[in-house]
Task: structure prediction
Amino acid sequence: MVPFFALFTAVTVLPMLYAAWMSLFREESSGLGFGGTERVFAGFGNFAEALGDEAFLRSFGNIALYCVLYIPAMVGGALILALLVDSTMARARRFFQIAYFLPHAVPGLIASLIWLYLYTPGLSPITEVLDTLGANWNFFGQDEAIYSVVNISAWQWTGYNMIIFYAGLQAVPREVLEAATVDGSGALRTAFQIKVPMIRPTVVLTLLFTCVGAIQLFDAPKLVQLRANTMGEDWSPTMFIYTAAFKGHDYGLAAASSLLLALVAGLLSFVVTKLGNRWKAS
Amino acid sequence: MSTQTATPDAPPAPTPRPGTGRRPSPPPARRTRGLTSRVMVNGVLAVVAVYTLMPLTWLLIAATKNYRDLFATNPFSLGDFHLLSNLDALFAYNDGLYGRWLLNSLLYTLVAAVLSTLVSVACGYAFDKYAFRGKEKLFGVVLVGVLIPSTVVQLPLYLMASRLGLVDTYWAVLIPSLVNPFGVYLARVFSEGYVPGEVLEAARVDGAGELQTFTKVALPMLAPGFVTIFLFSFTANWNNFYGALMMLNDERLYPVNLGLFMWNQNVYQQPELYPLVIIGSLVAVVPLIVAFLCLQRFWRSGLTAGAVK
Result:
């Protein structure tokens, strides 16, 4: 008990406070850059700077677009797969579950690395197939890059969430399903009108975790951006913070951006939970 | 028992095993229509399985090729078999740097996960079994901690660590990974489900101290929960790239993923690194996949415990 709270304070509470403190200051080089820097109290200057920074706002725009593409595809995909595996027609259920879950065992960065190579012409079987089909798709193009990022995330998470949904479906009482069948409900109707409503809480929770995860997106865009020159090093909020701190050495701005990101994440969780509860109650 | 959450499935009473025909096939009257939909359903499932397994298959094949074949041969055909020489090259490069990275990863993930799980389990147990003032408020703080994105805390952590002179040490990566609010939450749920108060009473009557009661009586009962929390923590640490990227400059302290990332940064100048990155990824992934396959049952019960609220 005590050790946990000591650590928890040290690595969660204190950093937040420290970030708040840091975000109020600006480092200014005095003179010609000799004699180091001094801290100047900046008030909310860093917040204003972050909010006024086009790149910072754009990074949230990027993530918003990413969510619009990714969340319906991934959660919808996981749900449909779970229903299919749960259906009476599925064979080799265990095999499919393991096959879908395996990508989750691959660390995020390495998964991104594998896909980066799979996107690279000359290395990749995919680009080769596309070429023979005469399709012209550049995974690193200005418009295509975001799909490349979405695909990496979907590959990693769809199976994981499918397992969660499937576990929820297993808890649906048999009697209910039998009653539905006796009442002449077809498989599709049973799936969408009986099974899905019964695992609503699980779906809401998954949406919440997915949103909180999406806003922290770093590994995949960081790697895709190595090849997709149009993305820029501040494509996602976490990339912006990293770049501000380690390339721009503007710790005040980075700290302010971190707090703003935490705020957005909190708001997002709140909104998703609220909407989810309303949907659960409907 | 609190009414707050569902009790997790304990391995003695596992979730119904999928694939063991829990639901009977449809009655014979619907067979003809059933056949087409059965083919459809399994067809879709198979296509998706191809999608999820393809990258790993490619990795396996690519890992057997030398640099020339990597770009010259068809990606899914086998070139000359160079797996062993690639492995040799991987572990020989820069005086066995890669081996060091593997050991580092082991330290950052395994050791950190064991410690963090111990701390979480003790904390969750205390939340469940002891009454003290402000308990629920404190627990609320833990739940808030679950929701704070870890990446948001990373930069302030880095700034603090640089103040304390901890940047570029093992501690910089280890200490933050010891905290796992979600683990505490799970531990409390498990403790409610698995450890009956009467048993603890009996232990105390027999003269066991509080600490002894916890380690000798409660901890064995919590073993399944321990494994579940451990797996969560392990995965989180294994995926931690952002933190390591910030905290470490010395390449001898890198975990595997950061090391591979840095190699990948250099492939444009040194294309001979390509095969190393590929074989390095494979070597890093294989033990994990094996571990996953062996520990599936715990995963399943853990996920269900976390999901069915």
User: Anything to note?
Assistant: The mean pLDDT of chain A is 79.
